[in-house]
């Protein structure tokens, strides 16, 4: 049977290849009936698929060139899609399997930070003596966010920062052998800054119910403000003012927990980023006396950028109540 097929298969292929030639010859001879018969015979049956090349080789038929096989309707070589990554399939680590926040929710929140500095904080430096220091730093940041998909949101943040500090006395004693003493009679510093920023926040749920979670936040902010610095020189008090502008791109990770079904408490801290600052300094009469431009990039824990916040989530009416 195999030998019979080896003889029949080439004859069928040869006949299929010669039919178009017969149709062309009939047209040249001027016999339309013969040409129609030849064309009908050359048309392949719709239900008869072409025989693959590997099947022809299996029954003993001689191998034919690829262009000849394509000309008679045989399928060409299979094309495979190249992948950018050298992996056979994409890995799904199911990080976003748990839902901490649902798509369509709106978030309204407020973060507040407050810190103080007093004379007791300088006890760790034995070279400082007669320190009378008092200062505080307060930051308030209201913000609004919209979750365009589960666990991911875009938002805007506004900010206000107030810094005030006063140093009445400050002495530096490096020892008798160094013969160097520094006495600062009085200093006063006050600063107010306003900021505006855009942020993107991604959450990851730590439990099946979605009560505890972690988040990573990328923020791009712009701030501007004024600083006033006064000091005593002899018996006279001198004052300088400065205006500054800061552009910052930072990374702020944190933790979040739902204390109520729609109220979430957060704790975040700054891990650095890129910052560019431009400062212009003026004297008491308003004349510009100096300027400074600088930029820096660092990635480290910033203890002065720890924020405690409270978020209120406005639910989508079609979403079920949290379990």
Summarize the structure.
16% of the residues lie in helices and 51% in strands. The protein is of the alpha+beta class. The chain folds into two domains: 2-71, no CATH class; 106-314, Porin (Beta Barrel).
Distance between the termini: 71 Å
The CATH class name of the largest domain reads: Mainly Beta
Q: Reading side by side through the largest sheet, how are the strands ordered?
A: 1-3-4-7-8-9-10-13
Query: What is the radius of gyration?
Result: 40 Å
Q: Count of DSSP helices?
A: 4
Low-pLDDT segments, ≥5 res: 18-32, 38-48
Query: In total, how many domains does the architecture comprise?
Result: 2
CATH architecture term of the largest domain? Beta Barrel
> Structural class of the secondary elements?
alpha+beta
In sequence order, what are the helices and strands, one letter per element?
HHHHEEEEEEEEEEEEE
Annotated CATH topology of the largest domain: Porin
Word description of this protein:
The chain has four helices and 13 strands. The chain is an alpha+beta fold and 323 residues long. It has two domains: 2-71, no CATH class; 106-314, Porin, CATH 2.40.160.20. The strands form two sheets. It has an eight-stranded antiparallel β-barrel with strand order 1-3-4-7-8-9-10-13. Strand 11 and strand 12 (288-298) form a beta hairpin. The longest helix is centred in the first third of the chain and has 28 residues, at 2-29. 9% of the residues are buried.
């Amino acid at each position: 049977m195999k030998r019979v097929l080896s003889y029949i298969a080439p004859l069928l292929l040869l006949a299929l290849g010669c039919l178009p030639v017969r149709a062309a010859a009939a047209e040249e001879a001027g016999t339309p009936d013969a040409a129609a018969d030849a064309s009908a015979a050359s048309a392949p049956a719709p239900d008869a698929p072409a025989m693959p090349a590997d099947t022809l080789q299996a029954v003993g038929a001689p191998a034919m060139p690829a262009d000849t096989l394509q000309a008679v309707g045989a399928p060409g070589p299979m094309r495979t899609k190249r992948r950018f990554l050298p992996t056979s399939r994409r890995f799904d680590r199911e990080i976003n399997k748990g839902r901490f926040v649902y798509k369509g929710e709106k978030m309204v929140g407020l973060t507040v930070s407050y810190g103080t500095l007093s004379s007791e904080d300088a006890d760790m430096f034995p070279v400082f003596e007669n320190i009378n220091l008092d200062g505080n730093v307060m930051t308030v940041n209201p913000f609004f966010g919209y979750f365009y998909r589960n666990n991911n949101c875009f938002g805007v943040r506004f900010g206000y920062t107030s810094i005030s500090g006063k140093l009445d006395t400050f002495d530096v004693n490096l020892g008798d052998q160094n013969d160097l003493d520094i006495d600062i009679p009085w200093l006063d510093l006050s600063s107010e800054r306003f900021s505006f920023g855009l942020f993107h926040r991604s959450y990851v749920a730590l439990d099946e119910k979605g009560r505890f979670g972690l988040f990573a936040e990328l923020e791009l902010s712009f701030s501007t403000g004024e600083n006033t610095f006064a000091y005593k020189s002899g018996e006279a008090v001198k004052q300088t003012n400065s205006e500054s502008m800061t552009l910052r791109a930072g990374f702020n990770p944190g933790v979040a927990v739902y204390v109520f079904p729609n109220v979430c408490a957060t704790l975040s801290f700054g891990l650095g980023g890129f910052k560019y600052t431009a400062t212009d300094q003026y004297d008491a009469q308003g004349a510009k006396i100096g300027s400074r431009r600088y930029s820096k990039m660092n990635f480290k824990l910033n203890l002065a950028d720890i924020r405690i916040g409270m978020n209120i989530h406005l639910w989508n009416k079609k979403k079920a109540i949290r379990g």
